[in-house]
From TrEMBL:
Keywords, in A-Z order: Membrane, Transmembrane, Transmembrane helix
Lineage: Bacteria, Pseudomonadati, Nitrospinota/Tectimicrobiota group, Nitrospinota, Nitrospinia
InterPro entries xrefs: N_methyl_site
Matches recorded under Pfam families: N_methyl
Transmembrane as UniProt keyword: yes
Protein name: Type II secretion system protein
Parts of the chain that traverse the membrane: 15-37
Length: 286
């Protein structure tokens, strides 16, 4: 009978070490798979967020590019409608812009309402805030058909002509800036190499009809440079810059982060000559 040597097979210690190595290898493999899945989900989440940013930018750009300089006529409330009375009527531009909203008249197709009976032109308000019906926060688009004298009047959320639409939720940041032309001061104009360049551009944070409040000295000086005459006059910007930040959906126990898109500059092709302030009479004579 053949005797069994003690060196044949595994000892208990070797078996335990082998099982431990196998368990470690399986754990590392599962950890690598989990890490790969998390990286894939994070990449998909980031790609989806940037796709949402691009979609929002395209929708806002389509609305803003179709802006057109429409005036609001403020007539004298008298029975006499002679030519002098009509010429004395005040006109104001149907455009308002702030840091987190812009209100304008656009000719692009509306996103709300019946597409078969879409109006030729409508008023649009884009802002960051709450949706009136649900209270959800995000980038809100308001569209209102121009009927009678309702242009740039107070917006009633309950009225059927005011339609609100949620463009995007989870919006952390929305800011507008406006590029306007200003007249170069005479002292700077004399010192520059090319005196034929009489205007330059600047970025401003807001464009308002300022007749309802008292102007500061800085605003009066800026209006003179912009060629703005009268309390009700504002100048249409040459371009609008949009900055957007969205909150990414957290994965697992990670904290939510904000994804920012590069600032988008949308040129206003309509009303280009109108956007440039008119020269004064003495400048035109020269």
């Amino acid at each position: 009978m053949k005797s069994i040597s003690q060196s044949d097979g595994f000892t208990l210690l070797e078996l335990i070490l082998s099982l431990a190595i196998v368990a470690l290898m399986v754990g590392l493999s599962l950890g690598g798979i989990r890490l790969g899945i998390m990286a894939r989900d994070a990449g998909d989440n980031k790609a989806e967020t940037h796709q949402r940013l691009r979609t929002i930018a395209q929708q806002l750009g389509q609305k803003i590019k179709s802006n057109y300089p429409v005036y609001i006529q403020k007539k004298d409330q008298t029975f006499a409608r002679d030519e002098a009375n009509l010429q004395a009527a005040k006109r104001s531009l149907a455009f308002q812009g702030g840091e987190n909203f812009v209100r304008l008249v656009t000719f692009s197709p509306p996103l709300t309402g019946d597409p078969e009976h879409a109006p030729f032109a409508h008023e649009t308000l884009i802002y960051q805030g709450e949706l009136p019906k649900t209270g959800e926060t995000g980038i809100i688009l308001m569209e209102r058909e121009i009927q009678g004298d309702n242009l740039f009047t107070y917006i009633e959320p309950d009225q059927p002509d005011s339609r609100f639409y949620m463009l995007s939720k989870d919006v952390k940041y929305l800011k507008f800036r406006y590029y306007q032309m200003e007249k170069i001061p005479k002292n700077e104009l004399e010192s520059q190499s090319n005196p034929s360049i009489t205007h330059r551009g600047l970025w401003v944070d807001e464009i308002f009809n300022v007749s309802a409040r008292q102007l500061t000295e800085a605003e009066i000086e800026r209006n003179k440079r912009l060629g703005i005459q009268g309390d009700d006059a504002i100048s249409l910007p040459r371009a609008i810059e949009i900055s957007i930040g969205l909150t990414e959906q957290p994965i697992g126990e990670e904290e939510a982060v904000v994804a920012y898109a590069p600032p988008i500059i949308i040129p206003l092709n309509s009303g280009m000559e109108f956007a440039l302030p008119a020269r004064e009479a003495e400048d035109a004579a020269n």
